[in-house]
Predict the structure.
Amino acid sequence: MSNLVERKARLIVHGETPYNAETPLVRLRAAYRTPADDFYVRSHGDLPAIAEDGFRLTVNSAVTTVLELSLHDLRSNFPHVVVTATMQCAGNRRADMRAIAPVSGDPWDGGAIGTADWTGVRLADVLREAGIHESADLHAAFESHDTVEGHPYGASIPLAKALAQETLLAFAMNGAPLLPEHGFPLRAVVPGYAGVRSPKWLKRITVQDHPSDNPIQANDYRLYAPDVTAETADPAKGHTINTMPLNAVICEPMRGAELKAGTNRIRGYAISGDRAVVRVDVSGDGGRSWAQALLEHDANAPFAWTFWTIDLNLPAGEHELAVRAWDEAGQTQSADPDDTWNYKGYLCTAWHRVRVCVA
Ligand SMILES: Nc1nc2c(c(=O)[nH]1)N[C@H]1C(S)=C(S)[C@@H](COP(=O)(O)O)O[C@H]1N2
Ligand SMILES: [Mo]
C-alpha cells in the first residue's frame, strides 16, 4: 500500500495544512473509477488519525443518544451496499471563475472530482434502527473528528436525502478500506450533493428539526449573487449548495498542448447532480460550431459521471476547444464564467475552454 507522501506526489497540491490536492486531468480521465491513490483530497482542518478499535458512531435523536455503534456493529448488523458515485467539490473549476475577478479559496482546476465504488451501509437503515421520527422537515446533522477553526467539522442534509437509498455510511472505497485522508474509518457518501455534505471521519449523527448550526453548514458553501462581496455577504441570504449542477470538462488535451494537424482525440467528463447527461457537444472553434461526443456511462450508476470522447479534425493554427453538456431536462451550461461569477467561486459551470496550438 502507498503512503500519503507517495500519494501527494501523484496530485497537484494546493495546500499542505489543511491538505488540499486535485487529480491531474489526464490521469482523472484514465479510469472511470478513480483509484483511491489518485482521488482529490479536500480538507478544512487536520487529518485525524482514528483507530478502528475504539471507534464508535453515535446516533442521536434531538433529545437522546439512541445508538452507539462500533465498526463491527455497522458491518454485521446492516446489509452492505455498493454505490458507484461521483464526489465533487463545490469549488471544482474555481480557477476559471478567478480569471474573471478575484475569488476566495483554492484555485481548483477541473480535478476536484472523482468517482468510486463506495461500500457501506445505508444511512436509512441505521436511522431506522435508531427509531427516528420520519418527517419531511427534519435534517440529519453530521459531526466529525477533525477540527476546523476551533469547531468540529459538521454539516447536514435534509432527512429525505438521508433516507434515500443512494446515501451511505461508507467504510470502503473501490473495495479497500478508506484511506486516512478520505475519512477512515467511516464517512458519509451523499451522491449528487456537493462533497461538503459527505463528512469524513464521522463521529455523530443527530436527527433534528433544523440544519446543522456548524459554521461549515451555516456560513460556508453558500451561493451568492454576483454583486455580493466578502464584506456584504449575509449567509442567511446565500443559497445552501446541495445538489451539484450540470458541468463538463475537457481532460485531454491539456491547456496549451501542441498538437499535430489532422484528427485529434478530445476526451473528458460530464456530470449532473440529479439528472442524466444526455448529450455532450464539443467545439474546435471556441463555440461557433459543435459536434457530438460519444458518451460512456455506467447504466447502474445514476450518480456517476459520464465520460465522453470525440475525434476532431483540427487544421494548423491556434484553436480554442470548448465543451458543453446537456441534461435530460434540455438544460445546458452558460458560455462564460461571468454569467455565474460569485465571490466564493462556487459552481463554476461555464463552457470549459482549452486553447491548443496545432502545427
Ligand atoms: N470531516 C470532514 N469531512 C469532509 C471535509 C472535511 O474537511 N472534513 N471536506 C468536505 C469537502 S468540501 C469535500 S469536497 C469532500 C472531499 O472528499 P475527499 O477528500 O475524500 O475527496 O469531503 C467533505 N467531507
Ligand atoms: Mo468541497
The chain has a mean pLDDT of 96. The first strand starts at residue 12 and ends at 15.
